[in-house]
Design goal:
The longest helix is centred in the C-terminal third of the chain and has 19 residues. It contains four helices and six strands, in the order βαααββαβββ. Strands 1, 2, 3, 4, 5 and 6 form a six-stranded antiparallel beta sheet that branches. Strand 5 and strand 6 form a beta hairpin. It is 29% helix and 28% strand. The chain is elongated, with a radius of gyration of 17 Å. The protein is of the alpha+beta class. The mean pLDDT is 93.
Length: 158
């Protein structure tokens, strides 16, 4: 494992200097899930949640969060994102899966933006459904793919 890059010579936190890095196309995909009662998932899918369309609101929340990741994560660079796509699927029983793909052309990757997107979407699902069920379980949340940059591509083992 390489050394940590977010520390200066004094061992204090720093934002990594990317000014000498090449501008390249970059993308990252992340996944999270929300485990819930089958009835809760059924109500989400049928539009029966009193607060409204859960997946539409969660999708917008994930997009907004990806765009503002540098405001949440102290050492993240603010990035001009060129694309954000959030998709939902389920196991026809009790788990809602959330995947986000984020793209940019820049000097640093978008892994944190993808992870932030799925996290915010999952939290939004919880928020909108908590009146129906409080014991939902969020996660695991993980990076599933990244492309671009000097470290190359990454694909999580399935």
């Amino acid at each position: 494992m390489k050394g940590f890059t977010h520390f200066n010579e004094q061992g204090r936190a720093r934002m990594v200097d990317v000014s000498e890095k090449e501008t390249t196309a970059r993308s990252a995909s992340a996944r999270s899930s929300v485990k819930m009662a089958a009835e809760t998932l059924r109500q989400i899918k049928s539009g029966g949640i009193s607060k409204g369309d859960v997946l539409s609101v969660a999708q917008v929340a994930g997009i907004m969060a990806a765009k503002r990741t540098s405001e949440w994560i102290p050492m993240c660079h603010p990035l001009p994102l060129t694309g954000i796509d959030i998709q939902f699927y389920d196991n026809d029983s009790d788990v809602l899966f959330i995947e986000a793909t984020v793209k940019t052309t820049g000097k640093t990757g978008v892994e944190m933006e993808a992870l932030t997107a799925v996290s915010a979407a999952a939290l939004t699902v919880y928020d909108m459904c908590k009146a129906l069920q409080k014991d939902m379980l969020i996660g695991p949340t993980m990076l599933i793919h990244k492309a671009g940059g000097k470290n190359g591509d990454y694909q999580a083992a399935e």
